[in-house]
Amino acid sequence: MPTRDREATRARLLEAARLRFAREGYDATSVRDIARDAGVDATLIFRYFGSKKRLFDEAAADIPDNLLDGPEEELVARMLGSVVFRDWARYGGEHPLVAMLRSSAHEDARRRIREEVCTTYVRALEDLVEGEDAALRAELLSAWLVGIGILRGVVATPALAEAEPADLAPYVESVASALLGRPMSGIPQP
C-alpha cells in the first residue's frame, strides 16, 4: 500500500475513533465499530496503532502544542480559547473532553484525564499563582474553565452558547486575576 494510502487510512481511523469515543466512550466502542466507520478492516487498527488503548490516546490527545507559548498574563485567555472557543467539527461537534469523561469508568482514561489536566493546565496555572495555596487556586481556576467549556460546548446553555470571546473576557480576567493573585489579560480568541 503506498504511503499516501496508509496516511489516508490512518487519518480516517483517527477521525472515526474521535467520533466514536466522544459519542460512546472507551468501553462501549469496539475496534470493529471504528473500522466499519472508517471503511477498513479492523486489523488495520492494530497495524497502525498497536492497540485500542493507543488509538484512544492518540484520538483523544488534543492539547495544542503552543498552548504554553506566549505572555504569561495571556495564558488563561489561550486556555479558554483552546477549551471553549475551538472548532470541534473534527469531533462531529463533540468536545474531546467528553470522550474522556464518557470513558472515565476505564482506569486508563481516568489516569489520562488526570495527567493531561494536571500536567498541562493545572501545572501551568500553578506556576503563575502568587501567594499561598497555589495548587488549590490553580485547580479551582482549571475547574471553572473546564466547566465553562462543558456548559458552552456540550450542554449548550443559552447564554454561554451564544457568547463571543469578548463577552467573557472581563469575567475571565477578573476571576483569573483573583485566583492567581496577579493581573491576567487578553481576550480569548476563537
From TrEMBL:
InterPro entries the record matches: Homeodomain-like_sf, HTH-type_TetR-like_transc_reg, HTH_TetR, Tet_transcr_reg_TetR-rel_C_sf, TetR_C_16
Pfam families: TetR_C_16, TetR_N
Keyword NAD found: no
Any one Gene Ontology molecular-function term assigned to this protein's record: transcription cis-regulatory region binding
DNA-binding region(s) in UniProt: 30-49
HTH tetR-type domain ranges (all copies): 7-67
Keyword presence, Transcription: yes
Entry keyword set: DNA-binding, Transcription, Transcription regulation
Record-given protein name: DNA-binding transcriptional regulator, AcrR family
